[in-house]
Amino acid sequence: MDEANPPDIRAVERACARLFASADGALLMVHLRRQLFHIALGPEATEARLRHLEGQRALVLSLAALARRGAAAPFASQQEE
Fold first, then answer.
1. Which of 23, 41, 50, 70 has a CB 3.0–4.6 Å from the CB of 17, allowing a cystine?
2. What is the pTM of this model?
């Protein structure tokens, strides 16, 4: 797999679903959410810091959305992946 031949989005969704369904994946998601969503930056935060935090939050939400879609999709055969 390389950037010239990206994987099928359904395969990525299923991979995320499997990852975050595991105990380790669930632990990681809890940690990421706690680190990124349970904090508030003060008025002294720079624009760069705000943008960085929002980018991190967007990445976590994107991973969670991929996992939700992968969990909701019917399981495919190994040949499809």
1. 70
2. 0.80
